[in-house]
């Protein structure tokens, strides 16, 4: 009697079980990789926005941006950073742009909301432990409620 070539049912079941075990072990790793990438994107977005806010403040302190006497010199909105402001020292009234675009908060759940509305805003007049919007934008923070991989809340970055 000749034996036919092929796999037995037991061999196939064991192979499928091994593949399922490897795939099950890889899933948490991919979720961790995606979360780490979002955290890196959040760090970069916060750094870009805060750098633009500081550049706006420096331009206002240098007298290049028109402001009221009692104003702090910080931008009135996030949109002012990318839409630009008129350079009052320039004879031909050129615009000053501080950022190319406002980045989105990568942890904000609704993708249809404009990027400037995905951030929490802190005005210069609000205390650091209770940030609140006001007449200007002194700082931004994430509205995400979770904590990062190192345990610090996203709101405190």
The neighbouring-strand order within the major sheet is 1-2
The global form is elongated
- How much helicity do the residues have? 25-40%
Please provide the count of β strands: 4
**Average pLDDT reading:** 90
- Strand and helix order: HHEEEE
- How many separate domains? 1
Low-confidence stretches: none
Please give the largest β-sheet: 2 strands, antiparallel
N- to C-terminal distance:
74 Å
Strand content: 5-15%
- The structural class is mainly alpha
CA-based gyration radius = 26 Å
Task: Supply the number of helical segments.
Answer: 2
Protein model, in words:
The protein has helices at residues 9-61, 79-83, and strands spanning 85-86, 95-96, 119-122, 139-142. It is mainly alpha-helical and 157 residues long. It has one domain (10-146). A hairpin with an 8-residue loop joins strand 1 and strand 2 (95-96). The chain is elongated and about 100 Å long. It starts with 8 loop residues before the first helix and ends in a 15-residue tail after the last strand. 18% of the residues are buried.
């Amino acid at each position: 009697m000749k034996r036919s070539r092929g796999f037995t049912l037991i061999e196939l079941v064991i192979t499928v079980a091994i593949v399922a075990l490897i795939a099950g072990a890889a899933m948490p790793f991919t979720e961790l990789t995606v979360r780490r990438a979002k955290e890196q994107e959040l760090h970069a977005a916060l750094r870009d926005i805060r750098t633009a806010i500081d550049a706006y403040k420096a331009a206002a302190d240098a007298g290049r941006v028109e402001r009221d006497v009692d104003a702090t010199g910080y931008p009135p909105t996030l949109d002012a950073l990318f839409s630009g402001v008129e350079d009052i020292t320039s004879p031909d009234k050129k615009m000053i742009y501080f950022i190319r675009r406002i980045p989105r908060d990568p942890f904000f759940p609704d993708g249809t909301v404009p990027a400037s509305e995905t951030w929490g805003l802190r005005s210069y007049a609000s205390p650091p432990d209770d940030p609140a919007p006001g007449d200007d934008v002194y700082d931004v923070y994430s509205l995400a409620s979770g904590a990062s991989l190192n345990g610090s809340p996203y709101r405190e970055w």
